[in-house]
C-alpha cells in the first residue's frame, strides 16, 4: 500500500476545503489510483463537511491533531472521541509545527498516539530533525529519540505510521535526498522495533516522507522502502493535488 496524506493545515476556509475535497473525489472517480491510500486532513472546523463529501469515496478523512485524553477540562482541544464520531480514520500527531509552536513534547506525543490508537484510528506520528541538528550530525539521533519515545511495548502498532519530516525541508521547496530519507526510515524502523520489543513489527510499520513534496518529486518518495508521502503546500490546491495524483497513477506497482 502506498500513502498520500494531504495536510491542509489552517490554509483553507471550510468552503475551500469542501471544493478541494470534491475535486479530489472527482479525480479518483475518473481515474484508477491502484494501491494508493489517500487521506485528506482538513482543519478540525472543516472535518464534518469534508467527511460528508468523502463518504463512500474510498478517500480517508484525516485530522491534524488530537488531545491526549478522551474527556477532560481542556479548553479548545479536540478529543479522539470526537474525531472517531466524525468518521476520521487517521490523525497526524506531533507535527513539527505543534512541537515548535505549541511546545508539544515527546511525552505528550506518546500519550496522544496512544489515545488515538485506542479508538482504532491510525496515528501518523511525525518525527524529524531541525537544520542545526542535521548540521551538527545529529539527524539520526534525533529521529531515533523521537521514534523511541512515541511508543512502548504495549502500543498497538498495527495502526501506527511514521512520517519522517525534516523540519528544514518543510515548506522550503528543498526536499531531502531520497537516500537520506531511506537512511532515516531504516533508523526509525530499527528504533520502533526495539521500543515495541518486536523487530518484525518495527520493520513493517509504514514510513512516509514529508517536506517539499510535489508532483515532480512525489514518485521518489513513494517507492520501497518508503511508503509514500505527507504533503503540505502542494496538497492545498487542486492543481497541486492533481499533479501529485497524476504522478502517482503511473508509478509501476511494486
Ligand atoms: C508538512 O508541513 O507536513 C509538509 C510536509 O509541508 P510541505 O509539503 O509544504 O513541505
Short description:
This protein has 254 residues and is α/β, with parallel strands linked by helices.
- Distinct bound molecules: phosphoenolpyruvate
Helix content: 40-55%
Radius of gyration from the alpha-carbon trace, in angstroms: 17 Å
Helix and strand succession?
A: EHEHEHEHHEHHEHHEEH
Biggest sheet strand order reads 7-6-5-4-3-2-1-8
* Structural class designation: alpha/beta
The CATH architecture can be given as: Alpha-Beta Barrel
The biggest beta sheet is recorded as: 8 strands, parallel
Domain tally: 1
pLDDT averaged over residues: 97
CATH topology grouping: TIM Barrel
CATH superfamily: Aldolase class I
Oligomer: single chain
Please, how many helices?
A: 10
Specify the CATH class. Alpha Beta
Number of strands: 8
Q: What fraction of residues sit in β-strands? A: 5-15%
CA distance, first residue to last residue:
9 Å
Shape: globular
Short key terms for the protein model shown above:
single chain; 254 residues; alpha/beta; TIM Barrel; 10 helices; binds phosphoenolpyruvate
Write the layout of secondary structure elements.
Layout: E1 2-7, H1 14-30, E2 36-41, H2 47-54, E3 60-63, H3 80-85, E4 90-93, H4 96-101, H5 106-117, E5 122-127, H6 131-135, H7 139-150, E6 160-164, H8 178-196, H9 199-204, E7 207-209, E8 228-231, H10 238-249
The structure holds phosphoenolpyruvate.
Word description of this protein:
- With 254 residues, the chain is an alpha/beta fold.
- Helix content is 41%, strand content 15%.
- It has helices at 14-30, 47-54, 80-85, 96-101, 106-117, 131-135, 139-150, 178-196, 199-204, 238-249, and strands at residues 2-7, 36-41, 60-63, 90-93, 122-127, 160-164, 207-209, 228-231.
- Helix 3 (80-85) links the parallel strand 3 (60-63) and strand 4.
- Helix 1 packs parallel to helix 2 and helix 1 (14-30) runs parallel beside helix 10 (238-249).
- The protein starts with a strand and ends in a 5-residue tail after the last helix.
- The mean pLDDT is 97.
- Bound molecules: phosphoenolpyruvate.
Amino acid at each position: 500500500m502506498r500513502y498520500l496524506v494531504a495536510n491542509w493545515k489552517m490554509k483553507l476556509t471550510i468552503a475551500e476545503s469542501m471544493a478541494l475535497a470534491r475535486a479530489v473525489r472527482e479525480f479518483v472517480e475518473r481515474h484508477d489510483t491502484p494501491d494508493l491510500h489517500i487521506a485528506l486532513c482538513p482543519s478540525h472546523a472543516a472535518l464534518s463537511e469534508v467527511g460528508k463529501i468523502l463518504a463512500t469515496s474510498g478517500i480517508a478523512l484525516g485530522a491534524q491533531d488530537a488531545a491526549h485524553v478522551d474527556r477532560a477540562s481542556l479548553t479548545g482541544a479536540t478529543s479522539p472521541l470526537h474525531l472517531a464520531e466524525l468518521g476520521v480514520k487517521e490523525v497526524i500527531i506531533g507535527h513539527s509545527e505543534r512541537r515548535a509552536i505549541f511546545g508539544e513534547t515527546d511525552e505528550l506525543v506518546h500519550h496522544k498516539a496512544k489515545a488515538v490508537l485506542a479508538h482504532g484510528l491510525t496515528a501518523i506520528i511525525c518525527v524529524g530533525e531541525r537544520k542545526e541538528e542535521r548540521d551538527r550530525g545529529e539527524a539520526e539521533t534525533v529521529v531515533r529519540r523521537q521514534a523511541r519515545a512515541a511508543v512502548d511495548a504495549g502500543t498497538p502498532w498495527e495502526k501506527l505510521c511514521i512520517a519522517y519530516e525534516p523540519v528544514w525541508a518543510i515548506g522550503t521547496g528543498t526536499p531531502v535526498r531520497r537516500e537520506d530519507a531511506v537512511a532515516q526510515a531504516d533508523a526509525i524502523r530499527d528504533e520502533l522495533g526495539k521500543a515495541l520489543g518486536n523487530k518484525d513489527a518495527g520493520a513493517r510499520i509504514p514510513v512516509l516522507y514529508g517536506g517539499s513534496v510535489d508532483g515532480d518529486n512525489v514518485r521518489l518518495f513513494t517507492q520501497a522502502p518508503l511508503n509514500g508521502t505527507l504533503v503540505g503546500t502542494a496538497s492545498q490546491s487542486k492543481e497541486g493535488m492533481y499533479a501529485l495524483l497524476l504522478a502517482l497513477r503511473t508509478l509501476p506497482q511494486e
